[in-house]
Specification:
The chain has 230 residues and is α+β, with helices and mostly antiparallel strands. The protein has 2 helices and 10 strands. The radius of gyration is 37 Å and the shape is elongated. The chain starts with 6 loop residues before the first helix and ends in an 8-residue tail after the last helix.
Amino acid sequence: MSKKPNRRRAAAVLAAAVAVWGPAGLAAAPAARAEVVDVAYRCKTKIGDRNAVSPVDITAERRGNGYAITMTFDKGVSDSPVELPKGVMTPRAELVLGGADSGTVKVTGTPNAAAIPAMTPIRIGTLTGTYTPKKDGTVTFTAGLLTVHALGMDAALCTPGDKPAPSLSLTVTGVSADPPAAPGALPGGELPRTGGTSATTALGLLGGTVLLGGAGGLLWLTRRPRPARR
C-alpha cells in the first residue's frame, strides 16, 4: 500500500527553502553592473588624425564614503612616431556621469613602465580615480575624453564617437545627508534670539545698575548739605 505524500510537510519544507534563499538572493544582488564596451576613439595627434576602437571596462569598489574607480583599456588608441622612453607617457581620462548624478570623474594612469617603440600602439593600461556620490540612486559611467600626455605635451586628444553606451551602472546606497537644521534656525545654524533677556545680559544690566546706584549714593553723600550752625 503506497503512502500518500504529506502535502503540509512538503509545503513547509518549500516555505523554509524560500525563506533561506530569499535574503541570500537579495544580499547577492550586484550593486554594480559592468560591461566591456567597444569605444571608437577619434584622436587628434601631432602627426595627424587617428581612429581606433578599444574595449573599455569600468569597475567600482566601495571605499569609505566613496568609490575607487578603475578604467581599463584592452587595446592602444594611437601610435607614436618616435620611441617613447620609459616613464615619459601618462594617460588620463574623463568619465561622464549619468542617471542620478552628472558631471565627470577624472581617472589617471601611471607612466609607462617600459619604452614604447616608434610606430607601435600606445598601451593605455589601467587608470584609477575616486568618485564621491552626493545622493542615493543609480549612476552610470561612460568613457569620455582621453588624453595621452607624452614628452611634456598632450600628444593625443581622443574623443569617443557614436555616443558609446555606459560601461558601468552603479547603485549608490547609504549616502548620509546633512542633518536638518533646528526649527527656526538662522542661516549658519544660529538660533534666533527670542523671549526674555539672556542670563548673561541680565547679569550685565544688574551689575551696571548696582554700579550706577553706588555712584549716585556716593554723590549724594558728598553733596549732602551741612547742618546749620548755632
